[in-house]
Amino acid sequence: METRILIYAPTGQDGPLAARVLALANLDSHVCATVAELEQQIELGVGAVLTVEEALTPAGYKLLHDVVARQPDWSDLPILLLTHHGADSATVRRAVAGLGNLTLLERPVRTLTLITALQATLRARHKQYQVREAARRKDEFLASLGHELRNPLAPIRTSVSLLTHMYPDAAPVARIRDMVERQVKLLTRLVDDLLDVARITRGKIKLQNQLVALQAVMTHVNELCTQAATAKRIHVAWQLPVSEILLNADYARIVQIFANILSNAIKFTPQGGHVVVRAQVTDNMLEVSLRDSGIGLEPEALSRIFTMFEQGTTVAGQFTSGLGIGLSLARQFAEMHGGSVEASSDGVGRGSEFVIRLPIVHVSENHHQESAPLPAHAALDGRRMQVLVVDDNQDAADSLAALLEIDGFDVRAEYGGAGAVSAVAERIPDMIIMDLGMPGMDGYEAARAIRQQPGADKILLIALTGWGQSDARRRTTEAGFDHHLVKPVELAQIIRLAGARHNREQVQAAR
Predict the structure, then answer these.
(1) Structure pTM?
(2) Strand pairing partners for 431?
(3) 239 burial class (0-12, 13-18, 19+ CB within 10 angstroms)?
(4) Which end of the chain has less Cβ packing within 10 Å, N or C?
């Protein structure tokens, strides 16, 4: 349906006549009798719109103008307008100004001219579809790449944690551990940024809003950026309000907004420079300014630094490290929260300022806090908590099992879904940590089979996977998982979930 021509000529016989002419040239078309039908058919798919000057009533023009305005980046909907003979009318001038990819054909128009114009239009439209397909393949590649990169990251991070437990006082081990941990965090962040690009372009990012304290956000941001600032001897000054400021926001995305912009400021600030982070509330909006003493921005750069994959340059003109997507993600996440991000600079060598505005909420001072996890990982009957780790990546399964054992859990490892189902039939564990993308019986199927076994309803079932998209999370919930963790996961996350489940069971047992 994306190759057909929608004809909108509601008066006279222009519509049916044009359809017959196009049929003789083997061009698929559909005649729309009303504006409502045109709108409906455009949503189903359109190669081009053929209309006439007298059809551009206020309603007809508004529909086409709105369709043009909300097109995706790859699309430039072609519209052919048959005009009256003679001087251009106000209707035609308005169409030229507001309908984008518009071609004017003055009536009476030769049949051959109309057909060749439409054939050329459809060829150009086909090129747009090729761009869309290339973008789709790129997004799928980025998502698959992120998943594949996360799989080896998981055993690397777990193995580093194992070294810490095995040699807590060995200085050489600590240096190696810290180095590997820094690189794993950096790679994880790059992978997450790539996946966010794919999710945004596919419209698959959904905010997980909750009450978020600004102080907690900035503490997290400081932790993420301290190492980079220290390495360049850059002083970051924090000027935050004493009163508590609360946002109704996605905590991870808000942290990402500020961390991306602060990291960018540190990257483009020379050794020994400074960055000032100042926050204030104005008209129920949080306004955070990040001002640096860095290399500054040229006036023309201000219009493109928020463009995806746009790389900044140093004073010497050399490209810096990074993917060129941090600022774009920051602005898009701010806008998703009803806010904005703006940049300004007094010029090259005179620093830059980024201003983030986000809506705040007013709530009481009493906030619900989750129970702290128990220090000892014990089941209700006092025995060690039994855990089953399932992953077809044997290194990932064995390293996580070893780490959990050191932390006091009773752990078994299985390397496939079928093996996990059999292991549960032999002995029901308290917790299962299972990969999803396994050959043969995958994690979804294995989870459903496990939940059908007697007594399995009490198992804490955790999906541990490289896929973090919303559809993967939905599928894990439907399969019976309690939680969905994205690789590489920190042991503390698993311990918190185990502790929270244990606390709930203790409360239920006491009733």
Answers:
(1) 0.50
(2) 387, 460
(3) exposed
(4) C
